[in-house]
Amino acid sequence: MVMSETSCLTNHFLIAMPALADPNFSHTVTYICEHNQKGAMGIVINRPSGLTLGEVLEHMDIEASPRVDLQMPVFEGGPVEPEHGFVVHAPVGAWDSSLKVTDEIAVTTSRDVLSAIAHGEGPKRHLFALGYAGWGAGQLEEEIANNAWLSGPADPPTLFETAPEQRWAAAAALLGVDVNLLSSQIGHA
How confident is the model at residue 6 (pLDDT cuts 50, 70, 90)? Predict the structure, then answer.
């Protein structure tokens, strides 16, 4: 399948349909950071891991400023490389290892962004996740065609400001969909 500019899902939300049984993705919203002919990469943004930013900073021996919210949740970003951290943030900034998703949003994997956040000097809006979700060439498109996911343009307020437990319904609502009315049965008309 040749991807056109309009079929690119970079900077989109993937919203798991109720019938998606994979425990890694049931009732999740995934922010797609990169999508091209080789596959896709995204971060699950609504599944807190039980860890806090403070615990991660302590583990990494990064001292935090007292004005930083150390109780901010760390998310389970996906099943791939769960030992690696990913910071989705705005504004983009100039960090050591970043992937610019849009002019306003980037995902960074380097320690410098976490250190800046810990000192209250980092990106104003951010979320931290361990691991990511990845798809091979054509795999995500096939899953969407099989009704595993809804997809639509990402919305920064939903990404950064909506409470994690409300992001699944909020992302679907951006498409005019009420998740409470979706069937857990899948099929094609």
Answer: very low
